[in-house]
Specification:
mainly alpha, 3 domains, 12 helices, rod-shaped, disordered N terminus
C-alpha cells in the first residue's frame, strides 16, 4: 500500500514543482502577480517572494505598484524576516502614505521589532525600537482599533526593560559593589517609580548604603551612615507595611548607633 501511495504522490509533487517553475519563467506579469497572491494566501510565502521581487521593477510607476509593494512587505513578515519586513513596511507607509493599507503596515512594522525583542538578559535595542514605533503608530492613528493592542504590547516591552534594569542594579549588590549598587538602584526607582520592584529596590538602597558606610574610611563614615538613615526614612515613608522593613530597620538602628559613636569621638 505504501509503495502505491509513493507512486501516486510523487507525480503530484513533480507537477507542483513544474507548475511553479513555469510561473517563475513566465513573461506574464499578471500571471505572476495572481499566483504570488495565491501562494501568499496559502501560506507558501517563500514561493511568492521571488515573484513579487521580480515584479517590483516591472510595475514601478503603474497602478499595480501599490499592490505589489504591499504584498512584498507582507511576504517578508510572513517568512519571519523581520528586519527586512520592518524596512519594507515602513517604506510602504512613506511611499503610499494616503493608502488605506498604511495604518496596517505601520502597525506591522512595529510588530516586527516586537517579534525581534529578545529575553531581558540580552541587548534590548529592538525592544526600545518597538516601543518607539508603537508610540509613533498611536500618535499617527490615535483612534485606531489597534490602539489597545499597541498599549498592551508597549506595557509588555516596558516591563522587560524594567526587569533588565532591576536585575542589572541588583547584580552590583550581589557582587558587593555597594556604591555602584546604590546609584543604579536609585536610578531604577527614579526611572520606574511605579514598578513592582520599587519596594525591594528601596530596601536594597538602605542595605547598600549601610554596607558602603561600614566599609568606608573613618573620615567618610559619618556622612555615609547619615545617607543610610535618609534612605531608610524614604523607604519607610513609601512602604510602611513592607515585609522587608525589619531588616532595613536594623540597618537604620545600627547606622544611628554609629552616627552617635562618631559624633562622640569628634567632640
Amino acid at each position: 500500500m505504501r509503495k502505491y501511495l509513493i507512486v501516486f504522490v510523487f507525480p503530484l509533487l513533480m507537477w507542483g514543482c513544474s507548475e511553479y517553475n513555469k510561473v517563475l519563467k513566465s513573461n506574464d506579469p499578471e500571471l505572476k502577480f495572481t499566483k504570488s497572491i495565491e501562494y501568499y494566501n496559502e501560506g507558501e510565502c517563500y514561493k511568492a517572494l521571488p515573484l513579487l521581487e521580480e515584479l517590483l521593477s516591472v510595475v514601478k510607476g503603474t497602478q499595480r505598484a501599490e499592490d505589489v509593494y504591499y504584498y512584498y512587505a507582507q511576504v517578508h513578515y510572513c517568512v519571519k524576516d523581520y528586519y527586512l519586513a520592518n524596512y519594507y513596511l515602513k517604506t510602504f507607509t512613506k511611499t503610499f502614505s494616503s493608502s488605506p493599507r498604511a495604518e496596517e503596515c505601520l502597525f506591522l512594522a512595529a510588530m516586527c521589532n516586537y517579534q525581534l525583542s529578545p529575553k531581558f538578559t540580552l541587548d534590548q535595542q529592538d525592544t526600545r525600537n518597538a516601543i518607539d514605533e508603537f508610540q509613533l503608530f498611536l500618535d499617527r492613528y490615535p483612534q485606531s482599533e489597534l490602539k489597545d493592542s499597541c498599549n498592551t504590547m508597549i506595557a509588555d516591552l516596558r516591563y522587560k526593560l524594567e526587569v533588565k534594569e532591576f536585575e542589572n542594579a541588583k547584580l552590583y549588590s550581589t557582587t558587593e559593589k555597594y556604591l555602584a549598587a546604590s546609584i543604579a538602584l536609585r536610578d531604577f526607582v527614579d526611572q520606574f517609580p511605579a514598578s513592582q520592584f520599587a519596594e525591594e529596590a528601596m530596601h536594597l538602597i538602605v542595605k547598600n548604603t549601610y554596607q558602603y558606610a561600614t566599609n568606608s574610611i573613618e573620615a567618610k563614615k559619618l556622612e555615609r551612615f547619615e545617607e543610610t538613615t535618609k534612605s531608610y526614612l524614604n523607604f519607610v515613608t513609601r512602604f510602611p507595611e513592607s515585609k522587608l522593613l525589619k531588616e532595613s530597620e536594623k540597618y537604620y538602628q545600627d547606622s544611628l548607633a554609629e552616627i552617635e559613636k562618631l559624633k562622640t569621638q569628634k567632640s
